[in-house]
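REQUEST FORM: STRUCTURE PREDICTION
Request ID: SP-0412
Submitted by: Lab K.M.
Chain count: 1
Length (residues): 549
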Amino acid sequence: MPATSLSARLSALALAIALAGCAGTSPQRQHPAGPDATGEQASKGFLPNDPLRIAEADTATLSARMAGGEFSSARLTQAYLDRIAALDDNGPRLNAVIEINPNAIAEARLRDEERKSGQLRGPLHGIPVLIKDNIDATPMVNSAGSLALAEHRPQHDAPLVAALREAGAVILGKTNLSEWANFRSSRSISGWSARGGLTRNPYVLDRSACGSSSGTGAAIAASLAAVGVGTETDGSVLCPSAMNGLVGFKPTVGLVSRAGIIPISSSQDTAGPMARSVSDAAQLLSVLAAAQAGGDSAVQAAAGKRVADYVGALDPDSLHGARLGLLRETATKKLPPEAEAALQRSLKAMRDAGATILEVRIPGDGKWEAAEYQVMLYEFKDGLERYLQSGNAPIKTLDELIAFNRTHAAREMPYFGQETFEEAASKGSLKDPAYRKAAAQARQLAGPQGIDAALKRYKLDALIAPATSPAFMVDPVNGDAFGGASWGAAAVAGYPSLTVPMGEASGLPVGLVFMGKRWSDAQLLSLGYAFEQLTQARTPPRYRQTLSP
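STATUS: Completed
RESULT:
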C-alpha cells in the first residue's frame, strides 16, 4: 500500500475518533438497581457463543492470531462487545462494565491499518483493554461510581491511558467499582455504586466480587476483555483479583503514574494490572510503567527502578533456591478446609520446586492500621479537592460532595451513608503535625520495621500468605462480611504485592499473595509466574446462581 494512501486513511480514521470524542456521548448502559437484582439465566448454565474463541485467551495468543490474519482488531473488539452484551447486560448480568468507549471500533480499525503497513506499536497492538471508572480516559465519564460526577468528562487521558494507546491497545470501556473506591462508609458494599449498580462475582452470582476494582475483576474473569486495569490503596487490586480467580499485581507506589486518577491516598495509591495469567499482568505492567508523567515525588523516586520488559524477567525456575516466609498469623489464618488444602498443595509444589518455606511473622503486624486510617482521611480530602478543581469537575470540594449526597440520598445512599466522608471533611491540611506524625508512623511500622525487618531477619526473598477468605455473600443490610486480608503491610509501606490463584473452596477462587521489598516488582512477578506454571490452579467462572441449598 502506498504511504500516501495509508496516511490519508489513518488521518480519516483519526478524524473520526476525534469527532466522536467531541460529541461527548457514550453508549448508555442499563444497570440493576441494587444488590437484590438477579440473573436467572446463569442458573440454567448460560454461556454465550464464542465464535472467535476469545474466552480465556491470553494476549500473546490473540496477538498471534491477528498477525496470522485469523481476525482483525476490529473484529476482536466487536467480539468482546458482543460478549459484554451477552454476559454483562443479559444472562448472568454481571454488571461489570459501566461504560463502553464509543470510539472502540474506530480505534481498533486504526490499529488494523497500522498493522497492514507494518507499523506495530508493541505486544498489545490491537488488544482490547478495560479500565476502572476512576481513571481519566477520553471521551468517557470519570465518576468513581458517583452520580455527582456522572457528567464529568475529562479533557485529557490519564498518562497510563495515553501509554496504553501509544502501545496500540484499544480502550474498550470502563468498569464499575465500589463507589469512591470503598472510602465513603465503613458499611459500604463492595462492587456497588450509585451510577453502576452492583457488580456480581461470575463464579457465584450472590457472592461479592470484592473491591474496589470489582468491575475489572469480574470482567476479566469472564473474558469481557483481554486484560484490565484496577487501582489500589489497600487491597483494591488484590482482593477482587483473588475473589475472581485472577492474577492481580499492585506495583511499588510510584512505578506507575497516578496523575488523572481520582485519589484516596497519595501515600498508597497506584494503578495495577489484572489478568488471567502472570505473563499478561507483566505485559500490561510493562506498558503502565512507561507512563511516568505526573511529577509527584513517588513517581520521581522510581527513576532508574523500572524494568523495560517485565515479561522478559519471568523465570519459570525462579522458585528454585528461593527463601519464602509464610505468614500464618494473619487475619486469614482460619481458612475453610478446602482453602487450607489448596494452600498445603501450593506449599508442597513450591518446596518440590526447590523453595525453602519458613513460617514467620511481621513484627508489629497490624499496628499501623490506626495511623493508616488517619493518613487516608487527610490525604483523601487534599487529593480529591486537587483533582476536582484541576479537572473542571462539576463539584469542587468534599463539602460540596457531601451536600450532593444528602440532596440525592434516595439514589446515592440507599444502603449505607457517608460517615467516612464527613470524618475526612473535618481534617485540616497536610501541614498538620497530626498528619505528619501518622504518615511517618504508618510507613515505618509497615515498611522498615515490618516487611523489611522480616525479610532481613529470616534472609527471605519474599513473604507469602493466603490472600483472603473465599468470596462472602452480598449483604445490603450489614455491608461486607470481610474475612481478613494478608496484603496490608505492603499497601501501607507502598511495597509491591501480587496474588495468584491457588485453588478453590466450594467453587470460589482463593489466591496466594507474594510481598517483597520496595522495587522488587520484577522478582515478585517471576516468583508468581513460577508458582503459576507449577500449579495451573485457575479455573474459568461457571456463573452459578448460589451455593445455598
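NOTES: Confidence is low (pLDDT under 50) at residues 1-27, 36-44.
Reviewed by: T.R.
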